[in-house]
Amino acid sequence: MNLNLTPGAEGLRAQLFHIIFESDTPGAKAFDIALIGAILLSVAVILLGSIEIYAERYGPIFFYIEWALTILFSLELLVRIYCLERPLLYLKSFYGIVDLIAILPTWLVLLVPGAHGLVIVRLLRVLRIFRILRLMEFVGEASLLLDALKRSLRQILLFFSAIFMVVTLFAALMYTIESPEAGFTSIPMSMYWAIVSMTTVGYGDIVPATALGKAITMILMLLGYSIIAVPTGVFSAQVIRSIREDRYSEEACPGCGHDRHDKKARYCLRCGTWLDEDSEDPRKKDENQDASSD
Amino acid sequence: MNLNLTPGAEGLRAQLFHIIFESDTPGAKAFDIALIGAILLSVAVILLGSIEIYAERYGPIFFYIEWALTILFSLELLVRIYCLERPLLYLKSFYGIVDLIAILPTWLVLLVPGAHGLVIVRLLRVLRIFRILRLMEFVGEASLLLDALKRSLRQILLFFSAIFMVVTLFAALMYTIESPEAGFTSIPMSMYWAIVSMTTVGYGDIVPATALGKAITMILMLLGYSIIAVPTGVFSAQVIRSIREDRYSEEACPGCGHDRHDKKARYCLRCGTWLDEDSEDPRKKDENQDASSD
Amino acid sequence: MNLNLTPGAEGLRAQLFHIIFESDTPGAKAFDIALIGAILLSVAVILLGSIEIYAERYGPIFFYIEWALTILFSLELLVRIYCLERPLLYLKSFYGIVDLIAILPTWLVLLVPGAHGLVIVRLLRVLRIFRILRLMEFVGEASLLLDALKRSLRQILLFFSAIFMVVTLFAALMYTIESPEAGFTSIPMSMYWAIVSMTTVGYGDIVPATALGKAITMILMLLGYSIIAVPTGVFSAQVIRSIREDRYSEEACPGCGHDRHDKKARYCLRCGTWLDEDSEDPRKKDENQDASSD
Amino acid sequence: MNLNLTPGAEGLRAQLFHIIFESDTPGAKAFDIALIGAILLSVAVILLGSIEIYAERYGPIFFYIEWALTILFSLELLVRIYCLERPLLYLKSFYGIVDLIAILPTWLVLLVPGAHGLVIVRLLRVLRIFRILRLMEFVGEASLLLDALKRSLRQILLFFSAIFMVVTLFAALMYTIESPEAGFTSIPMSMYWAIVSMTTVGYGDIVPATALGKAITMILMLLGYSIIAVPTGVFSAQVIRSIREDRYSEEACPGCGHDRHDKKARYCLRCGTWLDEDSEDPRKKDENQDASSD
């Protein structure tokens, strides 16, 4: 982000950019903390506002806080757009869309009154927490997890395909064995029961009534109980791999070809060859100096 | 699969074989996607057809879709048989049996009317998803998981034997402590409760009523909660091992026979022999040049 | 087990010993399979006999099977004792005690009639499955798991101490917040609820009623949901270590000190030194022969 | 802890210090065991005292035991303070605060009668179990687990942030779909349901009633069922790393400073320098002998 720091408007834009998009100056940090507070307050108001007793008692207060925060978030978005050189690109990005979603529902109520269903859209504001996490430098941890997730994605997809097949077959089996009175009124309903049982949630709203149904349920529960080892095992292995590879540089030693050096390594662990090909080995300098001084 | 591409009928067979059994040409890919769509539609129709309201309203539509898909799957199977040189061998294979199971129940209804119970057999169609997974090149991931499962099979069998013993003993104990009013009417019923509790499903349909029963339940729940670490640990270890071994090439060193080289390795880790037999060792070139330049 | 195979009684004893305690001859294998069948039949009879309808209908059949099997197991135990040189040592061992427990309850009924409560003791017969597992050569797998369990025992004990403290504190907290009407009638009852919640069993027989109680429950459930990672992680790490160490011999190379050689290794992986100190390196022999032949 | 062992009062203080704060003499061990017994008895009395039937029947006994133990714990704390040189520093430490909390509530009842709510504060006594664990030398295991927890802390925090977002969004979604009759009376109540479902607890007190609600619940349950692999994988990886690093000695090579040597290593893996500074390098001896023999 090479910004020309010209005086006047340009200087203001650059300064605002530093405060809003970065977090290395005291002003930027104060802004971040204020933003975190505003987001959490906003989420809390929505949550409490959905409880009838609180809505009746503190309704007007919630209303004013909501509008105050919406105006604040709108101003923030305007400033963000103002200090970026390509504001449209930002509005199309993930963070830009989340920023828009955070304020649009409240403004829409002015035009379309009584839009109660939009409460859920407003709660998409929690996604702004991602920005906070980025500010708190959780990026390294997140990328490690995403890296491991990406590597195990295909195995996890395979796992869910297998789950889908098992659930469908057990659901069809239970649908023919159990009566609709026990809750197995259709195959999709049986699938709901099968997932409730296999994931070990076990609400107990639908429960097998016959002896045969109970026997099959036991098999399904043991399957669900032990099959969890599959994604856990795959993911564990990938996290271990990601952590290990993160510690090593990917370049091989020009001397012996050993390719698992610590990222900070200057000499090859195995043969002592100088690894940084762009600069000269300080040992050689010493030798040259020794030679010339002789 | 060396097929002689002769003109006429033979050429047609070879072409059909490519389209149906492989997935590397545009025609073959289009066929695969159509097949995936047909299988998922067929499963959806069976699922929705089991819901009474939908069955009443859209019954005839479901009936026609079911027959259209059954005729399509039958034609597909006939073409498969036609373009294979040993069709009986295919019909005896896993995929052949699944293909037959996918169409037979619907045809059987013509002969044995009102065979409602066959609905479950029809749902075995979901197993055809395995074929889709194969087409989507999930083979590598599946073989990795199967490899790890095979390695941990004996430990997992041992784990289930231990679970069976624990469940039987706790069930017998609870059967003597708790009264039939609480649901513990027999030892098999107690075993059902023990599995529901140990796998952390916890329906709540059978629940201990006495203080002693509750104390024993606490031990069983803590056991089930922590014992899951056993299959998870074993499977994790085996996945890690399988992934690690996947990193090594399977070719042995021509010098010393060492067969666990990194796939990128050019020289043997143990004896330094040049591993790539198709090209010349650059070291030799250097030596030759050195020799000729002298 | 060096047994002198003398003719007559001694020869019979040795033969019986081979059949009963080992599993490498056809006769021994037939005996093993018969024993497995008898144990499973015996357990099945006890399980089915506890179901009232079956007990009424097939009561006498169960009675005769039970007695037939008890007499068979008694004969088996007598033969075991007969062909061992130190029978008392066997009766005091784990397997001996299980063998006694398997037959004593049925015999005791002759002396103490109507001993219904002994049904649980009879089910200790399932522990005889351990013997079957040993016969099926599951020993290696079991010792691997036990090895990993032993290594992680102290961490697991620590884990359960932490669980106990968390459960006690949350139980006391919920006891003061929730009313007895919701089921929190005493601290031990609250502890039962806390374990049901923390182990993710969730029967639903005791459930928080107040808003504050629900908030605390959320924390407890998230704690239980994520804390399972602790024993799983510890056990995974120990299994990986056990598998790895099982593959390597523990002796170091006399040449370079490298101490992670494959158990089958004859030469050091790193420096090529002959590892078996009890015999001579075949390469040296070759050299000596070469030298002498020159 | 350099204590001058002078005769008289000072000698008594030193002796008491050894008995109370250490555990390597017979007297100290006897004290530890007595302390463990007293703590467990004290916890048991509080637990049983909360059960109405027991409280009525054995109330006075519990009262006397409670007071006896409180006086004992008070004396113990006084002795602890007496034999320490900086008692205030101890009272401000974690163990000091727990010791105070263990006795203060009972004494407070004398001043503020009928302080029933203080029962929970008294149960903080279970935290004294930490001291027992320390005495039983569980420190190594605890530090290993804490080390792994510290390393995975940021990833676990990230995991809980993601859980919070998923729970909030699913709760808002279900609040708009499901009716208040099914229990989804507010968004916080929906969040309680979402956590109950996602952690696979599944009480069954709030359950989806509509088909769409059930479909969303299935997704949430599968998410919760498989997402547990994330903290487990991260923690497993960190435990493996902690164990591995425990295998290395912490001393650096005097030659090159490399500090990850196997605890059994005698020569530096990197530069071959002799690591044991207390004895002489056997290679040097050989050289000297070679030199002298020439």
Entry summary:
The structure is a homotetramer of 294-residue chains. With 294 residues, chain A is mainly alpha-helical. Helices cover 69% and strands 0% of the residues of chain A.
List the helices and strands and how they pair.
The structure is a homotetramer of 294-residue chains.
Chain A: H1 9-21, H2 26-49, H3 52-83, H4 87-92, H5 94-111, H6 119-122, H7 129-135, H8 139-177, H9 187-198, H10 211-227, H11 229-247, H12 282-293
Report on the structure:
Four copies of one chain form a homotetramer. In chain A, 69% of the residues lie in helices and 0% in strands. In chain A, α2 runs antiparallel to α3, α3 packs across α5 and α8 crosses α9. The first copy, chain A, is flat, with a radius of gyration of 29 Å. In chain A, 28% of the residues are buried. Chains A and B meet through α8, α9, α10 and α11 of A and α2, α7, α8, α9 and α11 of B.
Low-confidence stretches of chain A: 1-7
Largest interface: A-B, 49 and 58 residues
The counted number of beta strands of chain A is 0
Broad shape of chain A: flat
Question: What is the CATH homology-level superfamily of the domain at 12-133 in chain A?
Answer: Voltage-gated potassium channels. Chain C
CATH architecture of the domain at 12-133 in chain A: Up-down Bundle
